[in-house]
Design goal:
Layout (H helix, E strand, L loop, with lengths): L2 E3 L1 H8 L3 H8 L3 H8 L8 H11 L3 H4 E3 L11
Antiparallel strand pairs: 1-2
Length: 76
């Protein structure tokens, strides 16, 4: 999927653990891990809003678009 979740980078920049983020946002570790690893198929705006509020960031700081998913630079 060409949408990348960069939550791990933001956690590192904020020096915050995944456990602390779970507690502050109010979502389960399992759901946050699914999002962090990029396995989520959707994210609620309310969850994205809570993440941005706690991490003091914008949605674009947590999500990026990569149109070259396989990394070889060739068009399919």
């Amino acid at each position: 999927m060409p949408i990348r979740v960069t939550l791990d980078r933001m956690l590192l920049e904020r020096r915050m653990s995944l456990t602390e983020l779970c507690d502050r946002v109010g979502i389960t570790m399992a759901n946050l891990s699914i999002l962090k690893t990029g396995k989520a198929k959707a994210v609620r705006f309310s969850t994205l809003e809570a993440l941005c509020e706690v991490l003091d960031c914008q949605p674009g700081d947590l999500l990026s678009y990569d149109d070259d998913e396989d990394g070889d630079g060739a068009d399919a």
